[in-house]
Structures are given as structure tokens and as C-alpha cells.
Amino acid sequence: MRADDAAAFAALDLLGTRLPDDVVVHHTRAPSPEDFLDLDSDGVCVVADAMRGVRAGAVATIPLEALADGEEEGSVSTHTFPLRDVLRIARSVLGFTPRGSFVGIGGKAFGLGADMSDAVMQNLAAFAAAIEIELQTASPEVP
To answer: What's the distance, Cα to Cα, between the start and end of the chain in Å?
Structure first.
């Protein structure tokens, strides 16, 4: 069990076959700069994860560029290495900030060995819906 850090995995399970055909899902325990290095300048990604800094169960969407350019201490991240810093390193290697968005759900319980909090469980469908919207927005329209 990964507590609220498992919310993105659970949301993707809810989405099931509703994911656009061109979506490639990359599972990771914690984002790292290497996760973004296969993107070209036309590539778009959606990062989904539990987050700090918002009410437990609240869903927030933040453009990756705004997150990378933010001056706050990267408080959205529940990981030791903040996503803001991961994006900044990826930008320095790639020469551009990865296009896309971060979709987060406010977490309450983090770490191994615990179940997801009630607040996250109650809003998991809304989290999945926000991820789906971002994925559909990111996917090119097929004629």
C-alpha cells in the first residue's frame, strides 16, 4: 500500500479503456528528469500524482511550465525531489520545458503501509475525470 501516493494508479484504473489511443502510460514511484527525456518539443505529457498544499481530496491542474517557473518551494510534491526541480533539470537538458500539465489530488496520508485516505477515495472519480480532460486536450484530433 502506498497511501494517497497510489491515487494516480487508482485513477488510471478507473479510466480503463477511456484513455486516448495515443497515450503512453509511464508508471513511476517518483518523477525524475529521465522521465521527460524522450519527449520532443511537440510532445505533451500529463503528470498525475498526489500533492501537498491543497485540501485533502481537492483536485488541481497546473501547467508544467508554470510549475517549473514557480518560485515556491515545490510544495505540491509529495516526494523528496520536488517536481518543480525535476522539470527544471529536464528543461536544462532538453532545451525546453516539457509541454503539458500536472494533475494533482490533495493527499492526507503518505508513505508505505497505509490505505488511501477517505478524502482521496471520495474524490477519486473527480481526479480521474481531470486526468481524462487533460489527456484529451493533449491528444491531437484524429480527422
So the answer is: 42
Cα distance between residue 131 and residue 102, in whole Å: 9
Give the tens place of pLDDT for each residue, 78-114. Answer: 666 788 889 999 999 999 999 999 999 999 888 776 7
Query: Angle at CA 86, nearest 5°, toward 105 and 102?
Result: 30
Strands 44-51 and 99-106: parallel
Question: Exposed e or buried b for every residue in 38-70, given b needs 16+ CB within 10 A?
Answer: ebeeeebbbbbbbbbbeebbbbbebebbebbeb
CA distance 108 to 40: 35
Q: What is the DSSP letter of 141?
A: P
Give CA angle at 116 (124, 6), nearest 5°: 75
Residue-range domains of the chain with CATH: 4-16+43-138 (3.40.50.1450)
Minimal CA–CA distance to 5: which of 98, 105, 89?
A: 105
143, 54 contact by CB (below 8 A): no
pTM: predicted TM-score of the whole model, two decimal places: 0.87
